[in-house]
Amino acid sequence: MPYDKNTDALREGHEDSLHRKCASTLSSKPLCMVWIGERQARTAYLQTLKREAAWFGFDAAIVTTPQLLEVLQTIDRSAVVYNRLGTRKDESQSAVVQCKQMLDARKIPYFNPSFLSKRDVSIWLHQDDQASALLPDTTSHFSEDDVKEFLKRYPLVFIKPTDGSFGEGIVRIAREAGRVVMAERRGRRVVSTTFESISALAKHVTRTRSATCVLQEGIQLRSVQGCPTDFRVHLCKDGEGQWRIAGSAAKIARRDAITTHVYSGGHVDAAEQVLRGWYGARALTMRERIDQSAITIGRALERFVSGSLGELGLDMGISADDRIVLFEANAKPGRTIFHHPSLKNQAAASRRMLLSFAASLTRPPQNRLKPKLDTSLPKNESGTPFEESTTQESASFETYGSRAR
Q1: 396 pLDDT band (50/70/90 cuts)?
Q2: Which pLDDT value is given to residue 399?
Q3: For the chain, which terminal residue's Cβ has fewer other Cβ atoms within 10 angstroms, N or C?
Q4: Residues 78-104, mean pLDDT to the nearest whole number
């Protein structure tokens, strides 16, 4: 959704009275604040979450960084903050750092403290025996010798910016018929460059790419009609502080794309349908393997992240030999998968989980993570959840994919 200054100004006008009352002690209700960037749109998801917060006993507001700073000057009531700052640039601002310091000083809980870097995630998960088994070979060393060593070891390698998003900046390198082919996205196009030797390519990429990149083993993914396919698994904490699967969907790449991201031309389809096309009667078993692997990742990551995690978006794949692999973990996951019609109920459930988790954080420590709230979903007049869905095209399936993510 594009940013519209005039529309946002109108929305802020409707919320001004609530912002002025945020610090008031007159209300006995806890305050739930959804924290966003100043140029970040107040999406349908955020507006729906704000409405539904009342069903969990909250006063609720969507606040920008300046508004949050103002509230924190005088607030004297129970509160919780859901960090939905949309970009790393937003999170690097000094005012954001000041907000976090004030939240800590006032002992106001907030969750999803910051974006995750690919380098940190790799280092952390390699320290967990179960989680490390789900990782492709990855190194944060990015010298010319490192690139050459990786390309000698694997026929397919990805170079990823450690702080990248939406698949931007990812490079795919493949050894083909004695040559080395590098593919990268430029705008909406994929541009390929051929090198006669591994050494020539290694010199090129280390000269033209930032040192803050990771090298990752390429995995031969299963595919849908020849298009590499992986899965986005959305995890949420519930009112007991336990990770639960909020929803999952298949992401099917455009045929010539480097990644499966929708931004790169991919599309979303129902995970169950894709798995049935591949595995038939074994589809449920594979789904359970993916779900359990995702829970393992969530539990491992929260051991290392400083602060509370309330949700995670995990990009996971299945190799041609049925190995479950984690490609990326996102602490500020998008919600594109929930636009698929098959995930309407899961979209609503994910909001309930997050609000239940937020409510648990506002209770005294001895009473936390013991939810007593009614978590039934508020309905609109037609009896359906508030969040809108968009129709996505379905696809037919083949047994094995021939390309990597």
Answers
A1: very low
A2: 28
A3: N
A4: 95
Q: Which CATH architecture has domain 222-367?
A: 2-Layer Sandwich (3.30)
Nearby residues of 394 by Cβ (< 8 Å), 6 or more positions away: 269, 270, 273
- The Cα–Cα gap between 81 and 324 comes to 34
Domain boundaries, the chain: 5-111, 137-217, 222-367
- Interhelix angle 198-208/144-153, rounded to 10 degrees, is 130
- Mean pLDDT across 138-145: 82
Instruction: State pLDDT tens for residues 27-72.
Output: 678 999 999 999 999 999 999 999 999 999 999 999 999 999 999 9
C-alpha span between 340 and 261 (Å, rounded): 15
**Between vectors from CA 310 to CA 305 and to CA 316, what angle results, nearest 5°?**
80
Domains 137-217 and 222-367 share a fold: no
Q: Is the pLDDT of residue 14 over 70?
A: no
Q: Are 312 and 247 a contacting pair, CB within 8 Å?
A: no
Residue 400: per-residue pLDDT: 27
**Whole-model pTM over 0.70:** yes
For 273-321, how does the pLDDT look when each residue is reduced to its tens digit (9 = 90+)? Answer: 999 999 999 999 999 999 999 999 999 999 999 899 999 999 999 999 9
CATH, domain 137-217, list 2.60.40, 3.30.1490, 3.30.460, 2.120.10: 3.30.1490
